[in-house]
Amino acid sequence: MSSVMLKFAAMLAMSVDILMRIVLADFMCLAVPNVAMAQLGTAKHMIFENRGIDPS
């Protein structure tokens, strides 16, 4: 009984691990570039505004 439970737990852990990696990879691919671009744009905007230059 315990060996079956152990196998089941191991399978569950593996599938959860794979799922988390896929979700994390998707999140990284989607979110990180967008956040980086947004922060870069904001920083550039602030720098230009501080200098009194029109960013566009």
UniProtKB/TrEMBL annotation:
Name listed for the protein in its UniProt record: Uncharacterized protein
